[in-house]
Amino acid sequence: MAENLRLQCITIDADNPKKLADFWAAALDWKITYEDEIEVCLELQDGSPEVGRIPDILFIKVADKKVVKNRLHFDLRPQDQIAEVTRLEALGASKVEIGQSEDPDTSWVVMADPEGNEFCVLRALTQ
């Protein structure tokens, strides 16, 4: 039964799990709760009402490099899209073009983390 099943973590392959986890910990304000040379786990900060309901993010060291667009990505909802894009760039993310600028109604910014994994910064709900 689905009530007995919960999503524990989202796993991301990485060349350097620690470096990638450090980026996402800073980006999301989460904490590293476990790390060794092969894997690093991020979880919400203690005291968050979503603790236990939101999956962890697990970064696993793999030998192969990323070569194509992600089949799964994060969509982040900020309070201020421009400020958040600027902050994420300062942490090591970069803007990427995957065809979104061809549509004048595009309201999100596509970015890539330090290892090239794409994610989107959506417009604020109040914009």
Summarize the structure.
The chain is of the alpha/beta class.
Please tell me about this protein's structure.
There is one protein chain. The chain is α/β, with parallel strands linked by helices. It has helices spanning 17-28, 81-91, and strands at residues 9-14, 31-35, 39-43, 56-61, 74-76, 94-95, 109-112, 118-121. The strands form 2 sheets. It has a 4-stranded mixed beta sheet, covered by helices on one side. A hairpin with a 5-residue loop joins strand 7 (109-112) and strand 8 (118-121).
Topology summary:
Blueprint: E1 9-14, H1 17-28, E2 31-35, E3 39-43, E4 56-61, E5 74-76, H2 81-91, E6 94-95, E7 109-112, E8 118-121
Parallel strand pairs: 1-4, 5-8
Antiparallel strand pairs: 2-3, 3-4, 6-7, 7-8
Radius of gyration from CA coordinates: 15 Å
Report helical residue fraction.
10-25%
CA-based shape: globular
Could you say what the CATH architecture of the largest domain is? Answer: Roll
Q: Specify the biggest β-sheet.
A: 4 strands, mixed
Q: For this structure, what is the CATH homologous superfamily of the largest domain?
A: 2,3-Dihydroxybiphenyl 1,2-Dioxygenase, domain 1
Number of domains: 2
| Strand arrangement, major sheet | 1-4-3-2
Structural class: alpha/beta
* Overall residue-averaged pLDDT value: 91
Q: Would you give the CATH topology of the largest domain?
A: 2,3-Dihydroxybiphenyl 1,2-Dioxygenase, domain 1
CA-to-CA gap between the ends?
Answer: 40 Å
Order of helices and strands: EHEEEEHEEE
CATH class of the largest domain equals Alpha Beta
**Tally of DSSP β-strands:** 8
Low-pLDDT runs of 5+ residues are: none
What's the tally of helices?
Answer: 2
